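I have been asked to look over a protein record a colleague put together. The record follows directly below this note.
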Amino acid sequence: MDELEGDEQDAEPTIYLLVPDAQALNNIASLWNRWLQNENLGKGFAPWRDVFATLRDIRPWGPQDRIQSDERDIIATEISSMADDERIRLEIELVFRSVDGRANETEADLSQAVVARGGRVISRCRIADIGYHAILAELPVSAVRSIIEMSPASIAGLDPVMHIRPQSMATAIEVGDIAEMPPMQPLVIERSPILALLDGVPVAQHPLLSGGLIVDDQFSLEPLAQVADRHHGTAMASLIMHGDRNKLEQRLARKILLVPVLGLRDVFPDDRLIVDIIYQAVSAMRHGDEPSAPEVLIVNLSLGNARKPFHGRMSAWARLIDRLSYRFGILFVVSAGNHSAPFTVPHFANFSQFESGTDDQRAHGTMSAIGQLIAERRLLSPSESVNGLTVGAVNVDAVSPADRMGTRNVDPFPNLTTSNPSSALGPGFAKSVKPDILMPGAKEHMSFVASGTTLSIRPSGPARAHGLKVAAPPRNGVGNFESYTSGTSASAALASRTCHQIHDALESAYGDTFRSLNHAQRATLLKALLVHTATWPQATSDLIKQTLGPTDGRQHVRQKDNIRRFLGYGIVDAEAAIACTEDRATFWASGILPREQAVTIQVPIPICANGQARPHALQATLAWFTPVLAGRQSYRAVRLKLIEPDDMTSLRVDASKAQPDQNQGRRGTVFSRRWDGDKAPIIGEDQFLTLTVQREPDQGIVIDEPIPFGLAVTFTMPGVTQIYEEVRARLAVTSRVSVS
């Protein structure tokens, strides 16, 4: 059984136990009361004594469980200045019933209760695969007030209700310094898409996008979106198609499918549940007799629910992504989310002191401030997804030195490559490594908010001096413009672009060998290859250890826990992910593992590295898609394991200290390990290293379905230029195990 994880950031953690009926609940409550009175629990009930010793209270599910405190605060703020007869919309999730008839009855009962309180049902959604059943209800403020007061007579007191939440709110992007761009030739792209973007309505005829987009307006949102407001979809499509325009990179060779899921002013439609929208959008691409985009295997989600930070329970949106990724073999690339609220920086009385302080003083002050806010800077739904690839923002862009000089804002980390101050922090579900990776999100600067006894600052937003250059909507409907953006939405778009480029490189190099792999095998391979190049910068790791501790070097697991909250597996080297160099060879393998089976993969070690006392490294990254079990502790139903080779000693390498702890890395669906050293390896003729990918026994319910996986392995010794060619000459490419 999976370990029941705690959350040190939660002052009052709560666990929930599903019991078969009211009698079972009464029996447990009776045992609890006897234990409180120090009475003997009776024969056979001793284990309950140990359980009770860890608890503060036991009570039935009630109004305080159906609406969480942070969501109650959001709703209270929303209605604070509204009259009793005004209305707002809430998402009400029902206790999931697997039998259709019973589910219909409970929904009908809830709908009647809504109407009885002067409300109406706007929309509904039930997805059995993820145990989700919800309605979008419009209620008068008087009825909403009784909900946040947790009245048993309110909707929060109804047995069929599982959760009540404020209506989902789309995360936004910021843009700045809009400027007209020079004329350019329109795109001519014929190849069908392998990548889909679920985002806002784009300016499809922008010169940077025209000819490169297929817009599938499934939800009729295009007529609602004013052209001047189409920032989100336009910017993300631009980043995926062209990258950061400051760099003038080559565009992608395939069209992109864009399905608008944001409407007026780049917000979610107010008449649908976002889970329903995403489900229908993805299903239309890949399901049914006439799927609209059967080749799509990468879906970019530079979106999230700004009102749903991750507090340990999987959101319905994340559960949906996990299910769809396994069902259709799709890699979802998801932005971690941004937190742009002001925060206080210790040891600085005003902005002038902050600006004139040394680079180290600013970096330590900013990192210390963020460290105090970890509990408030969590991942935003659906980025806790287990199968998805979660992307945070690193403070990197391609702004020229001349443009960099034109800002009055202050760089908090001028000499460090690290996560942006606004980038959401991990960990993920069951304390898995999240975000998985960091990608460029612009070199975030800070602006002044307030000062006195302490200094308050906030991220300043993107600009020419610190931003990623993207396509932008026209002004007053006229002209072709570009602007600058930043944050994790942009980072996720660049990660999706890099995945596409990896796919293109493999397709070009191996043709039918690569194309013959099914969607899930290719998608998990892309996931592995992208994470594979991620590393922790040493200076950033040192700063986090010095600032957040613990200072005791023997507490290295806790130190690494703090580092991976910020960096995940690390900062991706996109160029290394796409191509090899003469002194580096990367191998890839893909396959499908049946239940409790294993596969061995032999990796050739080049003899040209023999006896050379140079820095060298071996890295291996395993990624897979798991079925998920909604509502169960063993949510991640299948675990794969990468078994370390027995014969590593001859390579003279040890596990790198600059990576997540091994146990932390085993909690998700991607596992990456690096071994390095600088002593001369002992390598014989035709030597191989044997790696084993093993499927662990299923937890609880037996899962008979085969599990797709991708594996990437790299051997490198900088300066030894024969490595790539020597390895290439030793191997023959096959359709099952291939080498790049």
About this structure: Confidence is low (pLDDT under 50) at residues 733-740. DSSP finds 20 helices and 26 strands in the chain.
